[in-house]
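Here is one chain, start to finish.
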Amino acid sequence: LEIQSARRAYRDSKRLAYVSEAPVNWCPELGTVLANEEVIDGKSEVGGFPVIRKPMRQWMLRITAFAERLLDDLNTIDWTGSLKEMQRNWIGRSEGAEVKFQVPGSRFQITVFTTRPDTLFGATYMVLSPEHWLVPQITTPDQQKAVEDYQAFAAGRSDLERTELAKEKTGVFTGGYALNPVNGEKIPVWIADYVLASYGTGAIMAVPAHDERDLEFATKFELSVIQVVLPVTRDFEKARLFFMEHRQIRPNLIVNGWTPINEQEVITASASTKAFSDEGVAINSHNSEVCLDGLATPEAKKKIIDWLETKGLGKRTINYKLRDWLFSRQRYWGEPFPIIWKKDAAGNLYHEALPESALPLLPPKLEDYKPTPDGQPPLARAKDWVNLPDGSIRETNTMPQWAGSCWYYLRYLDARNEAGFVSKEAEQYWMGVSTRNSKIENREMETQGVDLYVGGTEHAVLHLLYARFWHKVLFDLGYVSSPEPFFKLVNQGLILGGDGQKMSKSRGNVVNPDDVLVEYGADAFRLYEMFMGPLQDTKPWNTKGVEGVYRFLGRVWRLFVDEASETEFEQAETLTPENAAQRKDLLNLIKPNAAIKDTAPTPPQLKALHACIKKVTEDLETMSFNTAISAMMVFSNEAIKWEVRPASVLRDFLILLQPFAPHIAEELWQKLSAINNQPATALPYTPWPRFDPALLVETEIEIPVQVNGKLRDVIKVPADIDNAALEAAAKAAAKAQPFLAGKTIKKVIVVPKKLVNLIAV
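Its structure:
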C-alpha cells in the first residue's frame, strides 16, 4: 500500500493536472473559488462580494512547466510588442538562487528565492507569508495570539491589496529566528502580508538597504539596516584600489598614531531614506571562506552562488511569477471533471479518470444551483449522481469557463465531427504550414496556426496565455500540427463617444448603431468605422465623418448610374404601395451611366486603376483600412471626370470596394453586368485583381525650374530624360523667359530628375 501511495504521489508530481491544497480566493456569497484576475480590490468582479483567502482542495494545471516555452515562442509570432511584453511580465522569469536558512535548534530550514544573492550579507531579518507552512512551527507561545490574529487579517485581503506598493507595511514577529548562511548571524523571522505564499517559496530574506519595501518595513519596526552594495560613482572609480585591497592591510598603515591617506582613497557615504536597489559594487560582504568586496554585482552573484552550492546551502535556479493554473470552480455551470475518488485498504483517498467510454460526462439536473450549506459545490446536492454503486464518489468541482474558450477555434474547424474534436485533415488544412509575409522577419516565412486573430488587450494575460498553453499541450500529444495557435494578432482600439470619453449610458454619449443605419445605411456606417483612423487606435465618434463617407458612396453611385433614370425611379417609388416585390421591380428602372462602355481603357485610366489596386491590396494586408478607403476616394474623384468609363476598369474597382461597402458594391456589380447582358457572378466569389507594376511606371515627370533660386516654372519632361536634354528644356521654359530676358546664363545647376536652377546675370 505504501508503494502504491508513493507511486501515485510521484505521478501526481509530474502530471499536467494534479490536486493541491492551495490557498484560494473564496467568495462565500458566490460559493466559489475565484482566480486572482477575478478579484478586484478584495471583492469579486461579478457582484462585488467580499473575498477571503482560505486553503481548499483544488485541481491545478501545471502551466509553469511550459513557462520557458511560452516565453521563447513569443519570438515566433507576429504580435504587437506591447502585448508580448504583457505576457512576459505576467510569466515573470527571473534568474537567481535558492538559499537555505537554518532554524536554530530544529530540523527546519527556510528556503528563499532571491535574484540578488550578492546581498546576502545585508539580510537582517526574514519574512514569511502568513500562510507559510512553517509559521506554526517557529512561532513562540508568547507571540502565538498576535500571529494568529494577523493571519486572520491577511486572509481578508486580495493578493493585489497585499502587494500594493503605496500601502503601509504591516507585520508581526513570530518570536523565531533563522541563521544567515553566509555569516551565521541570528536574524528574526516575521510574517507580513506583502509576501505571498503563491510566489517563489513564500518566504524572503529582507535586505532593507537594497529593497524599498524591506526598508519601509525595517524602518517601521526598527530592524537593522546594513549596506552591502555601493553605487558606482566617479568618486568610487578613484577609490577602486582602496576597496579592492581593504581586506589586505598594507604595511605602515599607521604612523605615529595617525593614518596617512590621500584624497583618492576617500569616499563620502551619506545616509539615504531610499534603498539602493541597482547594481553596484559589493562592500561589507565577506567571511573566512568567501569575499565579495570590490566585485561588481554580476561577478559577486556568480561567486556567492558557487560558494553556496559548494557548501550545500543553496543552488542556482530560475523562478517564474507565473503560478500553476487553479482549474476548479465550486459552481454548477461548467464541465464536470471526469474523475472519481476511491479509498485504498488503508483508507487513503486517491483519484482515477473515467474511461473514455464514459465520456462525455454531463452534469445532473438540479433544482437548486447554490452551494450546499457546508460550502460544498452545487453538484454535491445530486446524491444519486455523486455516489456510485461501488462506493466511489464523483468529483463535484467543475471546470472554469476557460475550459471551452481555450480551444474553441479548433472545434470551429470541424464542428460536426463526432469522432473527435477535429480531424487531422481539417486541422492541417486550416492550421498547418503556410507562407505568409511576416513583419517579424521582414520577409516571407513559413508559419502555422490561425492567420489572423483580432481581439482586445484585455485578453493578453488570460485567454491568450491560457490558449497558448492549451495548444502546446495538444501539440505535445500530437493532436495539432503547430506549437502556437495564433500567428498574427491585432488589438483593435475603442470607439469613444463624441466627447472623447468611453461610451456610457451615464455619460449620455452612447451612439446607437440603429440610428446611424436608418439615416445613412449599413455601408456608410461600416465604411466610416474603418475610415476613422488606424484600427489599433482609440478614436472619438464624429457624425460629420459619417456624412463624409456617405457623400463618397453617393459619388460612387453616380459613377455607375444614370441620374435621369434614378430620378424616374424616385418618382415611381412614391406612387408604389408598400409591396416589397413591386418595389424591387422598380430598381430595374435605374440604368447604367451612358458613359460606361465596353471598350479598352486608356493608359491613364489603367494607371489610375492599378495604383488603386496596389494601394488597397497592400493596405488590406496591414489592416490599414482608412488609407485603403482614401485610395478609393482618389480613384472615384478621377474616374467620375472620364467621358468614357471602361466597364472593365469599373468592375475591378467594385471588387476592391466590396469588402468595405458590400451592399452598394453588389448592387452596382449586377447593374454593370447588364451592359454585356450576361449574368454576373456574386461579387464575393470574384477573383481579386492583381496590379501590374509596369503600368505604374511614370513616363513623364514634373521638374521645377528656378531662376536665381526662385521657382519660375514647372515643366513636364520624359521620365528617362538625360541631363543635357533637361537643361535645354529648362532654358526653354515659357514662364521662365521673362526672368531671363536681357540676361546671360552663367551657370546651370541640374539635380537629375528633381530640379534645374538657372543662374543668370
